[in-house]
UniProtKB/TrEMBL annotation:
<feature type="domain" description="ERCC4">
    <location>
        <begin position="765"/>
        <end position="845"/>
    </location>
</feature>
<keyword id="KW-0227">DNA damage</keyword>
<keyword id="KW-0238">DNA-binding</keyword>
<keyword id="KW-0378">Hydrolase</keyword>
<feature type="compositionally biased region" description="Basic and acidic residues">
    <location>
        <begin position="568"/>
        <end position="611"/>
    </location>
</feature>
<keyword id="KW-0539">Nucleus</keyword>
<dbReference type="GO" id="GO:0003684">
    <property type="term" value="F:damaged DNA binding"/>
</dbReference>
<feature type="compositionally biased region" description="Basic residues">
    <location>
        <begin position="545"/>
        <end position="555"/>
    </location>
</feature>
<dbReference type="Pfam" id="PF02732">
    <property type="entry name" value="ERCC4"/>
</dbReference>
<dbReference type="GO" id="GO:0000014">
    <property type="term" value="F:single-stranded DNA endodeoxyribonuclease activity"/>
</dbReference>
<feature type="region of interest" description="Disordered">
    <location>
        <begin position="530"/>
        <end position="611"/>
    </location>
</feature>
<dbReference type="GO" id="GO:0000724">
    <property type="term" value="P:double-strand break repair via homologous recombination"/>
</dbReference>
<dbReference type="InterPro" id="IPR010994">
    <property type="entry name" value="RuvA_2-like"/>
</dbReference>
<dbReference type="GO" id="GO:0003697">
    <property type="term" value="F:single-stranded DNA binding"/>
</dbReference>
<dbReference type="GO" id="GO:0000110">
    <property type="term" value="C:nucleotide-excision repair factor 1 complex"/>
</dbReference>
<dbReference type="InterPro" id="IPR047520">
    <property type="entry name" value="XPF_nuclease"/>
</dbReference>
<dbReference type="GO" id="GO:0000712">
    <property type="term" value="P:resolution of meiotic recombination intermediates"/>
</dbReference>
Length: 996
């Protein structure tokens, strides 16, 4: 444990000892400062004599991290208690009650705990305290605030400690930290930023050796980045013109973060229904452009182009950024990173004349009966044919990562050759040989692992082949939908040839058509080569590669060899680079810049002219012949373990690496590395940072640090100004307490009636379904002074009285229920068992109080309109009542007004509604009181009986036996038609088949 963790724990324990009855506090620390270790240290100090400790709002990754930290602490001389168990809904109520009394530590969900508290299943006197994680997600109406409010009324001596490591989220609203403290009944706020004195001293006492490597973007990547930023700036300028968003937040720097979407959406949600389609699309486009910037430095060139192709299809019509001036550069540069079109003689493709398209069409007419083996035969038989030249630009970081790993292996070999001394023996014991490479996501880890095992060129080839297979798969679907005859008669369009239309942009369209044909031809060539490769054996390494190393990697359970395999069918050419490698020294905070060596089109043309044989196919693979001498100089690599930052796991204490390569810089992971080094001051740790220079990657990393520092500065100012109300005993008062309501009622009492004596007020009761505790409405109803009774209901969500049953639907749930048909069944059961069924449609307080704008509502009934669906639902169930609520608090007011002149609901009857007894009888069935429900269902299934005539049949006869004896004339009169009456009569008179 780091020393500043001890300071945090001592502050919390001191607060508990000085506070008169009950203690705790809200602790906000910087991201990455090992919150799980702080929690596990607190759990270690807990003794069973204090009582049971409950941990709320924990995620699965946090639970596993805390358990692993406790296991690590068990290795110390002081044995730790048993690991915390998890209380789930699978346990019975009696079993949970025994666990609450066991004086142990438990993880528990908020929904289970609030239900047990309301049912008095929790012995609150045996609870030592509550630990609430992820405090930045709390609000006044959350379930955790509901739990603390009930818990404080029953136990005023237990402590409540809340923790958060997301300071940016704590300043998202107005005085959010103060409001969270009031709803949790907490008086003290503990702030521990990275720049705090104790934290900075501990982390900077013995820092790791840092090597900062700046890799320059390729020219095409720079062009894409510049174009995306220009498109983002144009969208932001258009959004500023609406005058409905705070202009200070609309900057390109804020647009790099995911929180930017939440900022803009939070401001526009209340007026979302008044916005035009253009403004709504601008908000969506900003999210797409942010992803484009992020994926540019994370994914390879082929994957990036594939993502752009999907955007062109999915957002091409309605998107605004695609029509910006700089958007065409994004697609153009992305293609140039993967391939380019040239003529068969190696010259660049020109678009000045129209003869390219016409020649292609003529050849198609002449060779109509020929099979298209290579996609477009015209491209191979004419001098002006188009050839697809592969560029397959590798990510600049791939080469740098390989160089760093090679230099690490060389350095270790040099250390191994040195005479063994005392200092070297210590280093050997400390170094386990693992090199940890931290990437953003799992896909990047797998791709980098393939780069080390197979080589970058082979990885790009595989991605390129996947891209072409997807192209040919899509083309196959299109051609299957448009089947042509084998020998079409006629000419022009009838002959399958599309003539060139006299348009101004015919050159551009012809180029795109040629490009499409060339891609399909390359895909068919790849597919043919793939079939040939399946016949051969697996490729073996080159015979001349005797001097390569055998560095074993542990990432994904595979061994990352330091060699490159050569395929038999098509050999991989590794282009000779200029030897500009410089050794990375071990000095602290050293910075080095590596210029990438981008491959431009000119190099490709030179290599094509110098090569002995030029491919006659449509797809030209730009690879040089493999030198056996090149593979003899392949350097060995050290063991490498790849780690995905998105997995949210803490792996440093498990692997204990001595060299860490941060491939995708992340602020939280950097802090974890600092904590790891502070906990192991004797370990020699070296950290390599790979940055793309002059990129949004650097800007985003630096801006994340500035945003967090600004958030802590804002919290420090709030702490100096906040006012936490306390009662006479020194206890913190929440936002709403029962004592306030009692004081208010006593002040308003009239002295003329019984001398001001307080009347015995009846407590309103609401029976709530268990599933509804996922929402915040039960909490708000409890704040209004209502008694909440949680049970499992088969019909409805809330029972307000013996007559009133409410089915609550949020907006998203309403749409889903209509789509699945669940709402029809729910309303049908409510109408069947309750006199006054109510459908409550609840909107969010911070969003518009409407489904759609008035201009979007049509006059006709359509199956896709939510208004039409609601109208049909009300017409089908005339007794159904619709209640519209603007917010949670408005719903509470509506419930109190509905219960004003009603009796309180009966718990036992509400639980039995809709549940058949052992005899199969359902109690309180409204339809069963008037009709025999089983007989009615049987009647409605008879031939000729419809929804319009079955009620008339029930009024005309008393039973099914009487119906079977009615003549055809009487049936015609009751059913309103001779055809339906005859169908029913024939069905009733039909004879049973006899068996001989």
């Amino acid at each position: 444990m780091v020393q500043f963790h001890e300071h945090i724990i001592s502050d919390l324990l001191e607060e508990d000892s000085t506070t008169k009855g009950g203690g705790g506090g809200l602790v906000i620390i910087s991201s990455g400062l090992s919150l799980h270790k702080l929690i596990s240290s607190l759990l270690l100090l807990h003794s069973p004599s204090q009582g049971t400790l409950l941990i709320l709002s924990s995620t699965p990754s946090q639970r596993s991290s805390i358990s692993q930290s406790l296991l690590h602490l068990q290795q110390n001389p002081n044995p730790s208690p048993n690991l915390p168990l998890e209380i789930t809904s699978d346990l019975t109520a009696q079993h949970r009650h025994s666990l609450y009394s066991s004086s142990s530590i438990f993880f528990i969900t908020s929904r289970i705990l609030i239900v047990d508290l309301l049912n008095s299943k929790v012995p609150t006197s045996n609870i030592a305290g509550l630990i609430i994680l992820n405090a930045h997600n709390l609000s006044e109406t959350c379930t955790e605030a509901f739990i603390v409010r009930i818990f404080r009324t029953l136990n005023r001596t237990a402590y409540i400690r809340a923790f958060s490591d997301k300071p940016n989220a704590m300043v998202s609203g107005f005085s959010k930290a103060e409001r969270i403290m009031k709803c949790l009944f907490i008086r003290r706020l503990h702030l521990w930023p990275r720049f705090q004195v104790y934290v900075s001293q501990d982390l900077e006492r013995d820092p790791p050796t840092v090597v900062d490597i700046r890799v320059s973007l390729s020219p095409l990547m720079k062009g894409i980045q510049k174009a995306v930023i220009e498109a983002m700036d144009a969208c932001l300028k258009e959004l500023r013109k609406t005058n409905k968003v705070d202009v200070e937040d609309l900057t390109v720097e804020n647009g790099l973060f995911k929180s930017f979407d939440e900022i803009v959406k939070r401001q526009l949600d209340p007026i979302w229904h008044t916005l035009g389609k253009k403004t709504k699309q601008l908000v969506s486009d900003l999210k797409t452009l942010r992803k484009l910037l992020d994926y540019l430095v994370r994914y390879d060139a082929v994957t990036y182009l594939k993502y752009l192709d999907t955007l062109r299809v999915s957002e091409g019509v309605r998107s605004i950024w695609i029509f910006a001036d700089s958007s065409h550069k994004i697609f153009e540069f992305a293609k140039k990173r993967v391939y380019q079109l040239v003529q068969s003689n190696g010259e660049k493709l020109s678009v000045r004349t129209k003869n390219v398209a016409t020649k292609k069409r003529k050849v198609k007419e002449d060779n109509n009966n020929d099979k298209e083996v290579n996609g477009s035969s015209a491209c191979t038989n004419t001098n002006s044919g188009v050839v697809l030249e592969e560029v397959l630009e590798e990510a600049p970081k791939w080469k740098v990562l390989r160089e760093v790993l090679e230099e690490i292996a060389e350095e270790r070999q040099m250390q191994a050759l040195q005479p063994e001394g005392e200092h070297m023996v210590e280093d050997a014991e400390d170094d386990n040989g693992i090199v940890l490479v931290a990437c953003k996501d799992e896909r990047s880890c797998m791709q980098l692992e393939d780069c080390i095992m197979k080589g970058p060129r082979q990885v790009m080839r595989e991605e390129w082949e996947k891209y072409l297979r997807d192209k040919t798969g899509l083309h196959g679907l299109q051609t299957r939908n448009k089947k042509k005859s084998k020998n079409p008669k006629g000419f022009g369009i009838l002959d399958g040839v599309v003539p060139a239309m006299p348009r101004e942009d015919v050159e551009t369209s012809s180029i795109s058509k040629l490009e499409h044909d060339a891609l399909l031809a390359a895909a068919s060539e790849i597919r043919t080569l793939g079939k040939e490769e399946t016949v051969e054996d697996n490729p073996q390494p080159h015979a001349g590669s005797k001097g390569r190393g055998k560095g074993k990697g542990k990432g994904k359970g595979k061994e990352c060899q330091g060699n490159i395999r050569v395929s038999k069918t098509k050999e991989l050419g590794t282009k000779t680079r200029r030897n500009e490698k410089s050794k990375i020294s071990g000095s602290k905070n050293e910075s080095r810049r590596i210029e990438s060596d981008p491959v431009d089109a000119g190099d490709f043309h030179e290599d094509i002219k110098n090569s002995e044989s030029v491919d006659k196919g449509v797809s030209r693979i730009h690879d040089e012949e493999v030198n056996a001498t090149e593979f003899t100089h392949v350097k060995p690599l050290p063991p490498v373990h790849f780690f995905a930052l998105e997995s949210d796991q803490h792996i440093l204490d498990i692997l204990k690496p001595t060299i860490i390569i941060v491939y995708h810089p992340d602020m939280s992971f950097v802090r974890e590395v600092e904590i790891y080094k502070a906990e192991n001051p004797l370990k020699k740790l070296r950290v390599y940072f790979l940055f793309y220079e002059d990129s949004t990657e650097v800007q985003k990393f630096e801006a994340s640090i500035r945003k967090e520092n600004g958030a802590f500065e804002s919290l420090i100012r709030q702490k100096s100004l906040m006012m936490i109300p306390v009662d006479q005993d020194g206890h913190c008062l929440g936002l709403t307490t029962s004592s306030e309501a009692q004081a208010l009622s006593s002040q308003n009492s009239v002295t003329r009636k019984a001398g001001g004596r307080k009347e015995g007020e009846k407590v309103m009761q609401v029976i709530v379904d268990m599933r509804e505790f996922m929402s915040s409405l039960p909490n708000v109803l409890h704040q209004k002074g209502m008694r909440i009774i949680p049970v499992t209901l088969d019909v409805g969500d809330y029972v307000l009285s013996p007559l009133i049953c409410v089915e609550r639907k949020s907006i998203s749930d309403l749409f889903q229920s209509f789509a699945s048909g669940r709402l029809y069944h729910q309303v049908e059961t409510m109408v069947r068992y309750y006199r006054i069924p109510v459908l409550l449609i609840e909107f969010s307080q911070d969003k518009s109080f409407s489904f759609q704008s008035a201009s979007d509502i049509g006059d006709d009934v359509t199956p896709y309109s939510i208004i039409s669906k609601l109208s049909l639902l009300v017409m089908h169930f005339p007794r159904l009542r619709l209640v519209w609520s603007r917010s949670l608090h408005a719903t509470a007011e509506i419930f109190s007004s509905l219960k004003a002149n009603q009796d309180e609901p009966d718990l036992e009857k509400a639980m039995r509604v809709g549940v058949p007894t052992e005899e199969g009888i359902v109690e309180d069935d409204v339809r069963a009181e008037t009709y025999n429900t089983s007989a009615v269902e049987f009647l409605r299934r008879l031939p000729g009986v419809t929804d319009s005539n079955y009620r008339t049949l029930m009024d005309g006869c008393k039973s099914l036996a009487e119906l079977a004896l009615l003549p055809i004339d009487r049936l015609t009169e009751l059913m309103g038609g001779q055809k339906t009456a005859r169908a029913l009569r024939e069905f009733l008179d039909a004879k049973f088949p006899t068996m001989l």
